[in-house]
Amino acid sequence: MRIVTRWLKRVGSRAVDRDLQAEVQFHIDMRIETYVNAGMTTREAEALARKQFGDVEEAMNGMRRARLRSTRAALIAVTSASLIVAGLWLYRASLPGAPVLFP
Fold first, then answer.
1. pLDDT tens profile 5-27
2. pTM of this prediction?
3. How far apart are CA 29 and CA 57, in angstroms?
4. What is the Cα–Cα distance from 14 to 90, expressed in whole angstroms?
5. Domain map of the chain by residue range?
């Protein structure tokens, strides 16, 4: 089980990094396009966009943390809903005259 988990983390983290890099590049490209449309050369626009965007690795770390928080919140929500459904099912099964699902 540990081998599978490690492999999934490695593969998953590479995929996440590619997604984050693509997202960062998208934002930089949008700024470049805006500046080129405003009359700057492509080289000037790219330099300004990268300068204004700041540290790419820091941005990616922030995005990783946000995704982790989002994933944790989703996991908590799914777990809570599952526990509520299981509790309601057990309550219903305990009522007199409730059908027996697994005799």
1. 665 565 557 777 888 889 889 99
2. 0.55
3. 17
4. 42
5. 2-54
